[in-house]
Design goal:
The protein contains 12 helices and 5 strands. By secondary structure, the chain is an alpha+beta fold.
């Protein structure tokens, strides 16, 4: 009777034992202590080789070997003075000054060109200024070719240009503050010379056409005066019209005297002793009139139409000379106006920051260089480590 009653309890106990046995074998044993493996040693070694060692070497060079660098700054802009004409001043339309961006762009490119390096090198010995045997990383070295000098120039000379305002600021680095200031002064002077040349070229272009017209007018005037001079030398007559008028006056006077003498002779009695004297005077006057009339044809030959030909030629030459004089005056006025207009638009270099003399070395920025280098090396090492583990996981 007891056996059937205890059967369910025994059955439950057996199930509990089986469940406990299963749970016992489902729990894993605890993990063993991590051990330093070869790949860990290689990873740490690569970090030391790629990151730590270069950073230590760079820090030693920057703080123990690299020399201080002094900065000199200069700032300027290209300005253009435009004086207004009288009409604009009366009308209230004035523009006293303005800037020209095209000249500033040209100057910005010129400062970074080989020509600027050559020009500054003529004033300041760049090979001597930038040479520093104890600091090979920041020194120009011994290669004096213009390409090498230009590459080092762009490292030591920074040009900051604001196209919206047209302002240019230049920062020059050198191992001595006096050298940096000398270079900025040379850059400022050379930039001013460039702007002056550009301004002179612009004035020459603006006045070239007016100058050509003035030269042509001067040539015409010279030719006209030379032709008139040759005519006078050839004909021995300064002014044929004045000569004709003078001779006509003499001839008219002789005609009046002839008429008066003939009247007196007619009114005189035939036996008057003065009659012979009047007759002689009458003959002299007639001969004089004949001589004066013959003078009209004695310019180059004895033809009676030569004087008229000379007068016609003289009048043509005089007209040419008068036209040449008027053309010359017009061309001269146009040239003077063009020159005045070009001078009103002259360009110049306005310096708002004169070349400065540094008192404290600002460069090289050691901590910034070291921080950037450390970050780049860490990123490089991280990328290489990820590439290594990605290739290892594929195997």
């Amino acid at each position: 009777m007891n056996k059937p009653a205890n059967a369910p309890a025994a059955k439950l106990t057996g199930l509990a034992l089986k469940a406990r046995h299963k749970i016992k074998f489902a729990v894993r044993p605890p993990a063993s202590v991590a051990r330093l493996k070869r790949r860990h040693i290689l990873l740490a070694g690569s970090f030391l080789l790629i990151v730590v060692l270069p950073v230590l070497v760079s820090a030693f060079y920057l703080f123990a070997i690299a020399n201080d660098q002094f900065a000199s700054r200069v700032g300027f802009s290209v300005r253009r003075e435009e004086g207004s004409s009288a009409v604009e001043l009366l009308g209230g339309i004035t523009q006293l000054s303005g800037d020209t961006s095209s000249d500033t762009d040209i100057l910005y490119e010129y400062i970074q060109s080989e020509e600027m390096v050559r020009a500054v090198n003529r004033r300041v010995d760049l090979m001597k200024v930038f040479a520093n045997p104890g600091d090979p990383m920041f020194s120009i070295g011994s290669d004096g070719r213009i390409e090498k000098m230009l590459a080092f120039w762009n490292r030591m000379v920074d040009v900051f240009y604001d196209s919206s305002t047209g302002l240019i600021e230049i920062r020059v680095l050198a191992f001595r503050p006096e050298d940096a200031q000398a270079i900025t002064t040379a850059i400022s002077d050379e930039s001013s010379d460039v702007i002056n040349r550009l301004s002179a070229t612009a004035r020459e272009d603006a006045t070239r056409y007016a100058r050509e017209e003035l030269d042509l007018a001067i040539g015409r005037l010279k030719d006209a005066r030379s032709a008139l001079t040759r005519f006078r030398a050839r004909s021995q007559i300064v002014d044929p019209q004045a000569a004709v008028q003078g001779r006509m006056g003499i001839l008219n006077n002789l005609q009046e005297q002839l008429a008066k003498t003939m009247i007196e002779l007619d009114m005189m009695a035939k036996d008057d002793p003065r009659r012979a004297e009047l007759q002689q005077r009458l003959d002299v006057i007639r001969g004089r009139i004949a001589d004066e009339r013959s003078e009209f044809g004695r310019a180059e030959s004895a033809r009676p139409d030569d004087l008229a030909t000379l007068i016609n030629e003289y009048e043509s030459l005089a007209i040419d000379q008068s036209f040449a004089e008027k053309t010359y005056l017009s061309a001269l006025a146009a040239y003077d106006g063009a020159v005045a207009e070009a001078q009103r638009k002259s360009r110049y270099l306005a310096t708002h920051i004169p070349p400065t003399l540094a008192e404290t070395a600002e460069f090289p920025r050691r901590w910034m260089i070291l921080g950037i280098l450390t970050g780049l090396l860490i990123v490089t090492w991280s990328i290489l480590a990820m590439i290594y583990y990605s290739l290892r996981d594929r195997r």
